[in-house]
Amino acid sequence: MTATTLLIEKENIEIPLKDVLIFAGYRTCDKDSPVSKEYKTRAGDALSKIKQVFTPKACFIRSDIEKRGEDFVEILGMRLESKPLSELLSPCKEVFLFAVTAGPFVDREISKMRFSPVDEILYDAAGSAAAEALCDEAERQLSSLAGKKLCQRFSPGYSGLSIDCQGDFLRLLEAGKRAGICLTKGNMMAPLKSVTAILGIPEREGEERTLY
Predict the structure, then answer these.
(1) Residue-wise pLDDT tens digits, 84-109
(2) pTM for the complete prediction?
(3) Among residues 168, 205, 4, which one has the least CA distance to residue 92?
(4) Read out DSSP for 155-179?
(5) Beta carbons of 154 and 197 less than 8 angstroms apart
(6) Residue 187 — very low, low, confident or very high, per pLDDT cuts 50/70/90?
(7) Rounded to the nearest 10 degrees, what angle do helices 104-112 and 117-146 cross at?
(8) Domains, in order of start, for the chain
(9) End-to-end Cα separation, the chain, in angstroms
């Protein structure tokens, strides 16, 4: 199976300001600690700058689930050990693997803020919100490609799935060539605001599952 580049139009991606605030640690549902006007303005400025330098890229591959057990699935030769993942993919015979990145210039803007703790938090949060919005757009396109709703996306490093599989994900996705994503010695992706994930493709419409 061959990885494919996913065409992402920057103009189609909406990054809500409330998501920036949430990633910065503010919970919009908490009425007892309303965000200050100044803080919200600074968050908006950070989001505006991140939008300017945001260079989204994505790639994916579609694969059968080769083998499964109570606490693992095997996909493209990878044994992915996680009981929640196995449960999530129980109605599926196929999955999408995908990778997205907000691009290197987002990392650069965040690094410029290291002398201002508040702005560093807000720029980092804006970068995370951009990556999350990009995941949503990739998921929307892949759902359209499959012709049905997909299971909740699941990423390495969560719910027992070791981050050590990150290198295999990127290799199979040809993410270096297709999206400019590489892996550091510490198993961190570069650019930093990058995400890999699995999306289960249910056999039948209406069987998509979520963990929470």
Answers:
(1) 999 999 999 999 999 999 999 999 99
(2) 0.92
(3) 205
(4) -TTSTT--GGGHHHHHHHTTHHHHH
(5) yes
(6) confident
(7) 160
(8) 4-202 (3.40.109.40)
(9) 31
